[in-house]
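User: I'll paste a sequence; please echo it back and then give the predicted structure.

Assistant: Echoing your sequence first, then the prediction.
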Amino acid sequence: MLDTAAREAADVHFDNPTRNSHSHSNVPLGGVPRALRESAEMAGLDPIAELYNEALRYASEGHLRLAKERLQMLLCMKPDDGDARLMLAKIHVAGQRWQDAVAALDEATNCGAQVPMDLRRAVEDHLRAEAAAEDEERSAKRAREQGEIRALRQEARRLRSENAQLVGRTSDLEREARRWAWTTAGASMTAVLFITANLILGGGSTEAVVVEPSDVAMAAAAEAPESGEAVEVEANEAEPVAPASATTLAQRAKAALEAAPGLDNTHLEVEFSGAAATLHGDVVTARQRRTAKAVVGGIQGVDSVEADNVVITARTKGSMHEVQKGDSLSKIASHYYGDSTLSSKIYKANRGTMRSPASLSIGQVLKIPAVD
């Protein structure tokens, strides 16, 4: 019944065409094996004994496959030969086929052979050991899978937390932008009212002072405290500022870069074409390049900063990083490469010391591989 179910499950059909037989005699009761045995005995051969002896000789010489084939031929002619089945069980033991060996020992016992108890115990012990090893392997695999699942869940929670922080930060920035917009509008309105009042009250004897509302707004935005308090702007104190020369801007940029924190181990130079600055040199991390660009861009008189010529050595040569509190592979990749999606590169380079992408510990030293 099991064999039929297995064939149906595998969709196996034994529908091969039969072969033409050239036999001149009918096959006797018992089939071809019995006919072969009777023919051999009529020719003066004892096939059962000869096959047993050949199997024994092959097994002694280590030819287990040939020995098993001879025993299978013997058992086709004499299925109830207990000694042959016992020898077949020993061959299975020599080949470490413990399940087949148990089945052969059971068949030998059913055929009346005396099975040594120590042989049966050895086979059963090996079977139990195999079963225990398989259970241990399944348990280890299950533990690894559960550990990976836990790590993935932790990474998912961390990503959700970072996403919530980013959403909150975005909301804060939007509120900050609206507050500065209202502050700028209030400062512009104050300047307009001041100029109007000066013109009305001062009459024609007072020289008109022209103040651009955008300039007043920029000054108010630069000096306005975070609390949103009103800032008084005296129009008569505004003095025109002469545009700085390229040499002066370069000196300011150099001094600002030297004083800026977080630019250790960098080599930067600034060139100016009018009010447009271009950074050259190399930095270790992408964050340092962003910092340098922001520092130069914050200098009065600088309209634009180009930093594409600055080489990030972490991308070209690699670097090392000591894990700090709050670090994650995506945050480290963004810090060094400027691209958080390259975190898989860092994980592959440190796979020998990391169980999963989320298994970071404070103080752990990571290799930052080159990616360009």
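The first strand starts at residue 267 and ends at 273. The two ends are 64 Å apart (CA to CA).
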